[in-house]
Amino acid sequence: MTDSLLNQLVQGIRSGEIVPYLGPGALSDVVHKETDEPIPATSDGLILAMNGGKPMAPKLMWEFARAAMNLELKKGRTFISRFLTDTYGHDKWTQSRLHKLVADLNPHLVLDINRDTQLQDLYAETPHTLIVGLARIAGTDFRYRLYHYQDGAYREVKNAEVDVTLPVLFKPMGTPRPSADYIASDADYVDYITELMGGFAIPGFVKEYRLNRQYLGIGLRLTRDTERMVFTDMIYSAGDPAGWVLIESPTAKERRFCESKRVEIIEASTSDLLQALEAAQESAVET
Which among 102, 104, 97, 114 has a CA at the least distance from the CA of 46? Predict the structure, then answer.
């Protein structure tokens, strides 16, 4: 990664022209404070944690959503929700270096497809808007909840009540706080992606803001249909190019997909970006 590209990305995130899009790899350095076990974030990590540390059948190990659907059919949807809340709804995880660096850049909008609370914790002193994805609910066409955060508490709000000047944390796959809502199983994704394609899973103020923006995918692999479909609809109406994604060793499938979406692949790891961002931050402090 060249210094000029890094500077372009940093300045773009600061100005709001580039939207960080955080995938599972963004949590690669997070461990449990007591056991030193890594946080379950990747598909494999989530499946093993959900199944008591034991692998499932090969066809189920392909993707967390498929494995979650299998266990949902056997144990109920509440089992999946309880597992995710037990996993992420406590403060025993170490802080992600990447999330801290992203928060320090103060972007207007962050898209985070993980289900942890790292960004919410980092924004604990900052008024902000939280968007949480929903699936399989009755009584509404929309597939999200909106919250206003201030003075240490979240309050659910309607679209008309949103202060569009505040930073926005968009958690499409859910979070345990303030209400445990998740997109996890195949059935959740089918419903959510259908409504995402129809325009009912993204608030209007985000649709307006994202026009001609660019995106930086961090810790994101695009080998599975689920991730690709969510990514495609989230970056709809992006600029040209639509942005960048860090993939250290991209597959031919990822190359074809990114080319079709006008997304440039940066062949570097999340660790490479971390080191570059930390070096840039230290240099800025010294000057």
Answer: 114
Contacts of 228 (CB under 8 A, 6+ apart): 222, 257
Query: Burial, 17: exposed, middle or buried (Cβ in 10 Å; 0-12, 13-18, 19+)?
Result: middle
Q: Do both 108 and 236 map to the same domain?
A: yes
- Supply the pTM of this predicted model: 0.95
In whole angstroms, what separates CA 99 from the centre of its chain?
A: 11
Q: What is the DSSP letter of 37?
A: P
Q: What is the DSSP string of 126-194?
A: S-EEEEEE--S-SS-S--EEEEEEETTEEEEE-GGG--TTS-EEEETTEESSSS-EE--SHHHHHHHHH
Shared domain for 183 and 251, answered yes or no, is yes
Q: What is the pLDDT of residues 98-114, one digit of tens each?
A: 999 999 999 999 999 99
Structural domain including 83 reads: 43-88
278 belongs to a structural domain: yes
